[in-house]
Amino acid sequence: MMSENISELRQDLVTGEWIVVATGRARRPDDFAKAKHPITSQPPETCPFETLHENAQAIYTAEGKRFLPDGGNRVELDGTWWLKVVSNKYPAFGQGECAVEHAVGPYRFQDGVGVHEVVVTRDHARSIAEMSPGEVAVIIRAYRDRYLALKEEGCVEYISIFHNHGADAGASLEHPHSQIIAISVIPPDISRSLAGSGGYFARTGKCVHCTMIEFDAIDGSRIIYENQDFTVSCPFAPRQAFEVRVFPKRHTPYFETLTEREIALAGDALHQAVARLGRALAGPAYNFFIHTAPTADGQSVAHYHWHLEIIPKTAVWAGFEIGTGIEISTISPEAAAEFLRGILL
Amino acid sequence: MMSENISELRQDLVTGEWIVVATGRARRPDDFAKAKHPITSQPPETCPFETLHENAQAIYTAEGKRFLPDGGNRVELDGTWWLKVVSNKYPAFGQGECAVEHAVGPYRFQDGVGVHEVVVTRDHARSIAEMSPGEVAVIIRAYRDRYLALKEEGCVEYISIFHNHGADAGASLEHPHSQIIAISVIPPDISRSLAGSGGYFARTGKCVHCTMIEFDAIDGSRIIYENQDFTVSCPFAPRQAFEVRVFPKRHTPYFETLTEREIALAGDALHQAVARLGRALAGPAYNFFIHTAPTADGQSVAHYHWHLEIIPKTAVWAGFEIGTGIEISTISPEAAAEFLRGILL
Questions:
Q1: Is the four-CA dihedral A196, A197, A201, A204 of positive or negative sign?
Q2: How far is B257 from chain A (nearest CA, A)?
Q3: What predicted TM-score, i.e. pTM, was given to this entire model?
Q4: Domain-located, residue A2
Q5: What's the gap in Å between the CA of B65 and the closest CA on chain A?
Q6: Strand B177-183 with B158-165, pairing
Q7: How many folded domains does chain B comprise?
Q8: What is the mean pLDDT of the segment spanning B170-193?
Q9: Chain B window 50-89: which residues touch A at a Cβ cutoff of 8 Å?
Q10: Which of A110, A140, A165 represents a domain boundary (last residue)?
């Protein structure tokens, strides 16, 4: 039933949740026996992102004259770009008929329709933990600008923005990059967050995230850092040891409403979060992602509060976690936050 | 708020789901910077399970005179035990007040109450993929017998049985072992499966798993192996490439109703599944776990159908999967099943 499309969204008949079978990136069955961690270290010579300055095909470019230290000298980078957004060469989603359900026996599936872009920063060896607040802000501005553009495309119900750092976190290339995937279904984790936030609002008349932000500010024990517009904290119920969240203080469901001032302060907050984790855990692999409202307009998600979650790979999810959905964190978020607060940046 | 207990169940205020903060196994904050993969290879001399034959504290023992090949000779093992169940020395759950919710600000938590046991087989270097069907049946019988015993304890709402193989799958010891955790809450993944199965039953009057088993038997493309009482197949909507499930043909929500004949045939089916994955993927790390009904009696889960899921570590869950809950499988389950069917055992 696999068509010529890159991928297929298949529905779990029990839970109703969607998964993706991506055969556009397919490997032969016996390829799965080989390298489980595709890349651990990669010289710039073989990095596909190193040739992006010769590539005119960028969807988005942020200019910036940059210098790299080279011994005692500073070497100016070729060209003036510092960040480019390009199409993913091996997309997980592609063209097709969106939101058309097909059936085979009791099962349902759709074409895996969507857009898959890559946000690449200029320096091969300069990870987000090493970037300045201003550099991180350039990345966040690119996220917002691409979000605003992708929101206007057809068949887009949700836009996922995420960053994988390190092979243990699933990064297939060492060169720092983030990914943006716009898809035609609302993902299950987002549905659950929206439902939970909506239920809390119905019961209390308040935003559940505002409630947590307010209480955590008074309590103090889970706060790592804050500036005028953002807080950086460990959540009361983390999925993993040293999980960190960045919350905007202004209540809005919509990430894309970030103002220029907020972009600068979000850059500062994300810099603080990632740099502290980097020092505390000696350069851990990590993932971060943005949780925001679905793209379709409507007041029905007015109770939601967008935010960013950072999950360092401090443990491997094993049979209990995978089989139950209950995650075990081996340090309390209060102890993790205290440790991260104490890091000197 | 952390008491003297080993762990705390904390509720995610947004989703209502429980997570565990386990400080009984706690490490100091800066320990998290060290070894992410605790054990990759471990000689028998330092393996704590190698001294179990001197230990009279087993909760459960399966006898069996066993011989190990040693060059041209066969060496008889010390003692006659082949499988022992012991208490986990580093339990994730322990004593406490069960099901009593405490609050701090808007947040809710409980003591992490439960029982955590380890099922150890005799041979240090003989993993399940290398065991005979009869040996695997001894393990399944131990699961069932301990399940029946733990079901009678107080504060037990769900019993999770799982096996981690390989450091990449979170196994902290190389010596083959499974774990049984009895806890006082119903895990979110189980709640969702029960709700999905219940919804399907309400709409169609049929068991969703029986429906899939029936259709898959006719369709054939996802079937790997079957015997009189069990099928081994790849699910239509897998979480990971090469995911395999073992289903009993007899409809029952309750794993613990396994008969002696079914135990033998479940041993055969699990042997087929794990041995084929082992050959196909060249000894992959994997997790397997049993999904069964909660322990509390009641006809409300009569629609459910227990089963076993095997998830080989063919990929690392990265930002998209962790951030959305949508898993991407890079081979279709039909291609994976065809490959696994063709493996000669």
A1: positive
A2: 20
A3: 0.92
A4: yes
A5: 30
A6: antiparallel
A7: 2
A8: 94
A9: none
A10: A110
